[in-house]
Amino acid sequence: MAPYEKKDVMLLVPLYEHPADRPEDWERLIASAGRLHSVVLNPDSGPGDAPDERFAAVAGRLREAGVPVLGYTDTDYGRRPHAAVVQDLLRHRDWYGADGAFLDQASSDPGLLAHYGRLAVAARAAGARTLVLNHGVHPHPGYAELADLLVTFEGPWDAYRDAAVPPWTADHPAQRFCHLVYAVPPGAPAADLARQRRAGVHCAVPGTGAHPWGTLPYALEAAG
Description:
There is one protein chain. The termini are close together. Mean pLDDT is 95; it is low at 1-7. Helix 3 packs parallel to helix 4 (113-125). The protein has an eight-stranded parallel beta barrel with strand order 1-2-3-4-5-6-7-8, surrounded by four helices. The chain has seven helices and eight strands. It is globular and about 40 Å long. By secondary structure, it is an alpha/beta fold.
């Protein structure tokens, strides 16, 4: 394998598997620290109801390797109460030492910009040095002012092949955008498409069905 170069697209990896069940995948992630933008930590559709020592251990090792650890927090497209979201953010910080936040199911509606602005302030106050909003689509441009990284595509490869990119994204660096693609066939040029579409961060996995994020990205599988 050729040496990794920083000009390549960086990887944001949402590995939604327990370290006890897939220890080899977590070891691969930690060993690949130099290629990672960040890793999403998701013990139980959020931090769970109690600390999990296995997740705390891998989170600590990732941080020691210089990888931002993003605590997964569902916002339910703005319907989840502010206090519930903040509770998850604080649990991720206190239980797992998360130094970033991954706000999932983020609305793309301009009418909810103020709500997400308040969540962004709360996330920073909870210690999030890296804040990611996962819209899954291109949101209103105002959301780019709230977070470090916007996930502007999440979906299957068949949809990604023909996905369009709105002109406003050209006003921002590629490192502000991420594409998450699943059901990607072997050899598909997902990283090349992400680069062409000015997404400086991506993840392309073979996983399918209701739980596609239980597999490592092809870029790391190939490194093994």
